[in-house]
Request: fold
Amino acid sequence: MREIQVDLSKIQANYRQLKALVAPSEVMAVVKANAYGHGMHEVAQALEDISVDALGVADLEEAIALRAAGIKSRIMCWILSTEDDFEMAAEQQIELGISNLAVLESALAAGVKQIHIKVDTGLGRAGFPRSDWEQVFTKLSGMSIGLFSHLANTSEEDDRKQEQEFLAAVELAEKSGVKISQRHLAATAGALSYPSMRYDMVRVGIGLYGLNPWDDREFGEYGLQPAMRAVARVVNIKRVPAGQGVSYGYRYRTDKETTLALVPFGYSEGMPRIAVGAKVLIAGRQFEISGRVAMDQFVVDVGDHQIALGSEVVIFGDPAIGEPSADQLGASAGTINYEIVTRIGGRAKRVYL
Ligand SMILES: Cc1ncc(COP(=O)(O)O)c(C=O)c1O
Reply:
């Protein structure tokens, strides 16, 4: 009745394409948040099968779950709390991206081998502020660490300022006697836009899944393909007269006699409730969602088109073959493709192609 179809071969192809685009830099494949909704274990295994350089997740729990599932590749995580099990991180050879002194001390005490220091170069989120850099690098003098930061993707000018800050951190670390084994700054948008910011490694998430990291720029030129399709089947069809209100609050009312198709995919599956007017593909034609999305379902006015019960409805997929995109669905709900793919699921089965 409803499925999230994930084509792992497209994720593998996207990884290879990204590797070629940023060579000779390494590529960390970011599989946090259930691989942006694509399934963390399945995606990690598919990438390990093609010798991924490294995997990136947010939490230590995600990293440990990957090791428990038998993943042997390098794994790094970067949202850490002082309550995390750093002995386990050391034992499981998980690399830690560290943003504060309390976590740094716990990780060193637990014998974590590979540490990456995150410096805040302007995003104002995680990362050591500049005022801490000297103290941190002095503490790590003589050690070999990774050094990284994350861009705000605000404007080229702001990104370049962040790069200057990043270079200042590299210089200060080296002056303090720290050996930097890997420098990494760019995620998908930065990796594609700025060759100078690829350094030793890039950390790509959204691009790996074939999705556009920008909401104001085209993405077709990079040869990356969306790996996820959300589909459902029409479960009800009925003719209604003009003036029929549709769904809660009557955000839509028919202006003539017409046919309404019911699609069992609601906000409980992650479909945004406010995506009124988003387009879906039924029988080769795009139609708008009519009225509010409900918990389990939405309605599509298909006019006088002959739509059969059981017809496939593509909620989003690959725009290159005429399907609506996750970007368009995001835009119709005032959000971005990242949020669409990570929230999609609920009762919809994930099926791997
Ligand atoms: C530190 C860090 N690096 C890399 C990424 C991947 O970003 P993107 O999906 O834009 O490639 C993220 C995602 O939010 C992140 O938090």
